[in-house]
Prior knowledge:
By secondary structure, this protein is α+β, with helices and mostly antiparallel strands. It is built from 8 helices and 7 strands, in the order H-H-H-H-H-E-H-E-E-E-H-E-E-H-E. Helices cover 32% and strands 20% of the residues. The longest helix has 13 residues, at 36-48. It is globular and about 40 Å long.
Amino acid sequence: MLYLNQQDYPDIPYPNNLSDPASKGATNGSIASSGCGLCAMAMAVDHLTMQSLSLEEAVELSCSVKANLKPGTDMKLFGKAAADAFGLQMTVSDDPEEMAQCLMTSGRAIINVGGDHDDHIGIFSDVGHYVLAIGYRDGEFCILDPAYRPTKYNTEVPIRAEKVREEGIFLYTRAEVIMSDTENRSPRFYLFHRKTDLK
C-alpha cells in the first residue's frame, strides 16, 4: 500500500498561492512545503485503482484546473479532476458517520484539518493540512499523514499523544478528535469510491 511523505520531495516544484505572485508558495512552492493534498490524492488513487498518479502529474493536474490559486490545494477542484481522471466518485461531507461508512465500503477519505485557531491546538497540524483516512474499526479511524515525523505526535506537541495512537506510520483516532480538528473547515471530508463499488 502506497505511502507518500511530502517532506521527501523538496525538489518537485509546486507553485501555489498564485493569487499572491510575491508569496513564497508562488515563487518557491514545492511538494514538501505545500503538497499534502497532492500526496493524499496520489495515495487514494493507488489504493483504489490499478493506476498511479505521480506527484509530477498531480502538480500538472492541479495547475490545469487552477486548484493552486490559494495556499496549498483547492480539493474541491483538484479532487474532482483526479476522481474524473481515474474512474472515481468524489462526494463531500461534514458527517463522520458518512466518512466511516465510506471507509467500511472500500473507500478513502481526505480530511481537511484546520490547524491552530482560537483556543484550539491542532492535532494533525498547526496549519491547514490534508490527511488520508484509510480505515475504520471499533470506533477508530486509521489515518496516513503526508507530513508524518516520528516526533510529531508525542514530543513536539505533547497533547497530540493523548489524541492519537501510533503504530508506525499508521495513526488511530476517534471521531471527536477529527471533528474538533476540522471545525473551522468546510467541507470537512472528501470521500472517494470506485464507481464500480457504488452499483
